[in-house]
Every structure is written in C-alpha cells, then in structure tokens.
Design a protein that fits this description.
The protein has three helices and 28 strands. By secondary structure, it is mostly beta strands.
Length: 436
C-alpha cells in the first residue's frame, strides 16, 4: 500500500484529533444547559451522574437494582414492567403546573416506555388498566415512547409521541431504533402539546368537549382523574423493555392569558360518574369578595372590596389588606365557584400570604386552613383538593401544613387567601376543577 507523504499523514492525525475533541465536546454537552437556556429559565432534572431529585413511584427513594446510570443516561434494564417487579416508574420529587419539558429517549427493538404527567401519586383506583395492575403506578397523560414498527397493529393513538390512547400524532419523523429521539411536552394553562424531533405532532385542550368525548370512548372512562389539570410530577415509565433517557430539562411557564373566555355563570356540576371539568378562570374583580371576621356575629361577613385594594392587570390580580384594628383579619374569597363534593383548585401566588383556605360557604368557623406558605418574591403554586372526602393541599411538590384537617368532608365552601393587615399578594393562573 502506498503511504501518504509525511505532511498528509500529519494533517490526517490532526484532523482525527480535532474530530475526537469535537465528539468529546458533544458528549460533554449532554445533561448541561447553555447560558441561553439558563437565562430562559430552564433547569436540569438529571445531571448525568445521579438520580438526585427522583424516586420510585410510591417510594421515598429510587429502588435498588432498578434504574441505572450508564454513559450519561438514565437506563432501565429489562424486567416485567409491573409495580411489583424489579424496576418501577421513576418520578420527579418536584411538581409542576405549567411547564415545557424536553427530553431525549432511545429504545431497542420492540422497546416500549412513556413519559407520564397530569397524575397524582398515591391516588388509588378500582379499575385495572393492564394485566398485573396493582394500582401502584401513575394514571394520567402519557407521551408514548415506542419502537413503532413491531407495534404496527396498535391503534394510531398508541404509537410513539401520541397522547397515549387519546390523541394520534401527525406529521412525525421517528428516528431508527437505537438512535435518540427528542421529545417535548408543553402544558400551558389547559393547552397540552407533544413534540417529536422539533415538530409539534399532537395537542389537546383540557376540559374541552372534544377531549371529554375522546376520554369517554377510551379505557380512561373508568378513571375520572384523566384529563384534569393539576400540579403534577413527571414519571418515566417502566414497561419492561430497556429504555434510555438523557438531557431532561424543564422550564416553568406563566399560563397563557389567551384562553377562551369562561361563561359568567359556572356550568352545572357533572354527574357522579363524570370527570371533573377543568376551567381556566379569567381574573375578574366581580368574582372576588372580601370577608372580615365579625366578633359580634362569630362569623366571616362580606365587605366591599375597599377592605382590600384589588387591582387586575394582564391577568394578574393584586390585593393588599387595608383593614385596621376593628377588622384585624380579612380573607380574599373566590366566589366564582361553590366547591361542593370533589374538587381541585390551583393558583399561582406571590407575596406575603398567611394561608390559603377552604372556607365554609355560610361564613362559619368551619374551614380547612393551609398554613405557612412561602413568603418571598417568587411565584409558587398552591393546590387544594378533595376526593372522596379526603383533602390534599400542596405548595409545589411539598405538602402544605394543614390546620382543622378534620373539616367536614361534605362541607360546601369557597377557595380563599388569608392576608394579615398590610400584607400584599398577587394571584394568577387560577384553575378550578369541580365535580360531585
């Protein structure tokens, strides 16, 4: 074989070294954020080295022998794909309400997994969703992660990038098995999107008549929580097949204010077998009241809004408690929906807030009070709900400190914020899901 001149050999060596350095740089860029991403509010959910910030569904930590870290990826070895197996769904410790989540995923031949969201961990159910279902895995929305070819007999709404079993992806380009695909999930108010390799392929509106129709004709008809807006963790599904994830990054969003307007009179509560209906609530002063505590009447009594200075601008309500020593306690009450039976209410807030509450509709002393929410200049999401007589209250991922937790399970009431004199709070992104 003819040997190239020394100069050519030298250039070839240099080119190979440069290529090696480039490949090394690209590999090192995995599981990192660019300065632009950091400035835009993105955060890493996986650093490529540990499972910090994650736990196995229903556990306090990651089950030993389940998800591994290999070559900068979260890797699930093959298993039986059942909650009592060696794996389990991997769940974020943190919860999110409005967000963009980007991730890269890779499956082998016949691979099957998914990214799950809009679920409540620990929520028990009576319906079985798959053989071997013990009720100890998420049920909500799922971004399907799949090797499509061997699953060609699946319904189209159960193929890769679908909103699993509900919305069929269109116009998608799926990379070959063994290569990484880029997924993206957007939850912004009631709007949900799935993206695959830079292209939006599926979307829906939570609470819409069309989505309710689809759910009613799917296996999810037996589970009223599917399609309901809520603060949610994100889960990587164990379906028994080996799967790898990397470059998991998320940024929280301010809910869009361009949703369709809500009717002034709330719709009637659905029948017991119907799912709760999620409504993105526009901020209108007419929906809010101020209640002050009356020592003489031993109850909360309604007062004009001048007991709080209330302003609404660009979809954000700002309220300041201007009461005095005669009325030392005041609450800002959302009177737009009477909460009777099952419900979930969530809202973003920022400011000096004493508590958020479910206040009995008659103004009596009966209430469920969620104390000591964070008081800083950051936006936080407060969530209060009741299902089958059991209450849940959270600030982001953390359970809220609850007082009077034994409030009557059938109590009719209103969602409200309690402010001390002089305190100010901002509220946005109010979502009400009410049923019976």
């Amino acid at each position: 074989m003819h040997r190239p001149p020394f100069l050519f050999r030298r250039l070839a060596v240099m080119a190979a070294a440069m290529l090696f350095q480039t490949v090394g740089t690209l590999a090192a860029d995995n599981n990192t954020l660019t300065p632009q991403e950091q400035a835009a509010g993105w955060r890493l959910l996986f650093d490529g080295r540990s499972t910090a910030g994650w736990h196995t569904y229903g556990k306090k930590s990651v089950t030993a022998g389940s998800w591994k870290i290999k070559d900068g990826c979260l890797v699930l070895p093959p298993g039986n794909g059942r909650p009592n197996g060696t794996g389990g769904d991997l769940v974020t410790n943190a919860m999110y309400t409005n967000f963009e989540f980007e991730f890269e995923w890779r499956v082998g031949p016949v691979g099957n997994s998914g990214v799950e969201y809009l679920f409540t961990e620990g929520e028990k159910r009576t319906a079985n969703f798959y053989p071997g279902d013990t009720g100890d895995s998420p049920v909500g929305f799922e971004y399907q992660v799949l090797d499509d070819a061997p699953h060609a007999n699946n319904a189209a709404n159960r193929l890769a990038a679908s909103i699993y079993s509900l919305v069929t992806p269109t116009g998608k380009t799926l990379r070959p098995v063994g290569e990484f695909n880029q997924g993206r999930i957007v939850v912004n108010g009631n709007h949900v999107e799935h993206w695959l390799n830079g292209r939006k392929v599926a979307e829906c509106e939570l609470g819409s008549a069309e989505l309710q129709r689809i759910i009613a004709s799917s296996k999810y008809k037996y589970y009223p929580g599917v399609g309901v807006k809520r603060a949610t963790a994100i889960a990587l599904q164990d379906h028994g097949a080996e799967v790898a994830y990397r470059n998991l990054k998320l940024r929280e969003l301010r809910p869009s204010t361009t949703s369709a307007p809500t009717a002034a009179v709330p719709p009637p509560a659905p029948a017991p077998s119907s799912p709760m209906t999620a409504r993105k609530v526009p901020m209108q002063a007419a929906d809010w009241r101020v209640w002050c505590w009356s020592k003489a009447d031993n109850r909360w009594t309604e007062h004009p809004l001048d007991k709080m200075t209330v302003q609404i601008q660009d979809g954000v309500l700002s309220a300041r408690n201007t009461t005095n020593s005669n009325w030392p306690r005041a609450i800002l009450v959302y009177r737009g929906t009477l909460l009777d039976g099952d419900f979930i209410v969530s809202a973003d807030y920022r400011g000096q807030l004493e508590s958020f509450d479910l206040q009995s509709a008659d103004g009596g002393n009966q209430r469920l009070t969620c104390l000591n929410p964070p008081q800083d200049n950051q936006w936080h999401t407060a969530l209060l709900g009741r299902k089958q007589g059991q209450y849940v209250a959270r600030i982001e991922e953390a359970p809220a400190q609850v007082q009077n937790g034994k409030a009557d399970a059938g109590m009719k009431g209103y969602f409200c914020f309690k402010l001390r004199p002089g305190e100010t709070v901002e509220v946005r992104g109010l979502v009400v899901q009410a049923g019976r």
